[in-house]
Amino acid sequence: MSLEKFINQAVSSWMNNEGPQADIVLSSRVRLARNLEDYHFPSLLKADQAEEMIARISEGVQEKYLLELLKMEDLSSLQKRVLVEKHLISPYLADTSAYGAVLLSESEDISIMVNEEDHIRIQCLSPGLQLKETLKKANDLDDAIEAKVKYAFDEQRGYLTSCPTNVGTGLRASVMIHLPGLILTQQLNRIVPAISQLGFVVRGIYGEGSEALGNIFQISNQLTLGKSEADIVEDLISIVHQIIAHEQSAREALANTSSIRLEDKVFRSYGVLTNSRIIETKEAAQCLSDVRLGIDIGYIDNVSRSILNELMILTQPGFLQQYAGGPLRPEERDIRRAALIRERLQLEENC
């Protein structure tokens, strides 16, 4: 494994497999927040303590898992941005943590952030709707680390974390979900408040404070205290199944009542992607969303969903500049984005 591999490969290898409900659910993620006893939270750690933290956690997990250690101080701002775009580290770790690090598996389905908002943020990813399996993977990692260190834990409150909203299980379970049908039929605004009342939240593609590019949303739990990890995951699965049913109904309604308009929208977007000479991030994401919907419905059969997953990451600003070998002006990025999409879709058609 190498830094170049994590930076230059747009699609993590785990993303090449399609999981359950892959036409709507892109991925499942489980994150566990943990802190070590007898240490200040990361924001108050001194440099030598932060280095000790990295060494202890790395040692605790490396005996059982083969992971690559990347320290934030060794990465350029552009390299860190690429890792954020691939969902391997958080914007907080990239921009705020002075002594942060990340441990990554070769397939990139495991990411352990060290000295982020908490001492440890264990993150596991799986394709499609596989929350239970992903939770088991995260718990196995958690057990491997806990065998070597002592966590900050209170019998009444559970795991103690830097942010009070994570106290308890320290669990944040989420799914990345594609909802063009609910957007086109204007139903999502009615569904979101109902989800919030159940203790879950709908966010953009990169989590809190981010936009929902290409009709892709993150749905995750808000509550970490008062429920077990298994119960939180079960409740989230139940909600996701309901949203999937609504999305499928919306797609069927669009195909039945507005078929020619929907087909026109899909192929117009496909035309934009295959012919544009300049395209911005938002427009590219929207067109990719339309084409993905066209693939799912059956309008387009010469492009695979996996290519669109690749392009959603490959066309982000960080990746474009990484491929260019340095910073680009906005217009230069838009020109390169358009060229990259054209070339990649042409290659797919030829194959």
UniProtKB/TrEMBL annotation:
Top EC class for this record: transferase
Notes on how activity is controlled: Appears to be allosterically activated by the binding of pArg-containing polypeptides to the pArg-binding pocket localized in the C-terminal domain of McsB.
Entry-linked CDD domains: bacterial_phosphagen_kinase (cd07930)
Pfam families recorded: ATP-gua_Ptrans
Enzyme Commission number(s) of this protein: 2.7.14.1
Cellular component GO terms held in the UniProt record: extracellular space
Domain of life: Bacteria
Motif window: RDXXRA motif of the pArg binding pocket involved in allosteric regulation: 333-338
Keyword Transferase carried by entry: yes
PROSITE patterns per the UniProt record, alphabetical: PHOSPHAGEN_KINASE, PHOSPHAGEN_KINASE_C
InterPro entries: Arg_Kinase (IPR023660), ATP-guanido_PTrfase (IPR000749), ATP-guanido_PTrfase_AS (IPR022415), ATP-guanido_PTrfase_cat (IPR022414), Gln_synth/guanido_kin_cat_dom (IPR014746)
Sequence intervals crossing the membrane: none
Residues the record lists as binding ATP: 27-31, 87, 121, 172-176, 203-208
Functional description taken from the UniProt entry: Catalyzes the specific phosphorylation of arginine residues in a large number of proteins. Is part of the bacterial stress response system. Protein arginine phosphorylation has a physiologically important role and is involved in the regulation of many critical cellular processes, such as protein homeostasis, motility, competence, and stringent and stress responses, by regulating gene expression and protein activity.
Family statement drawn from the similarity comment of this UniProt entry: Belongs to the ATP:guanido phosphotransferase family.
NCBIfam families assigned: PRK01059.1-4, PRK01059.1-5
Name this protein carries in UniProt: Protein-arginine kinase
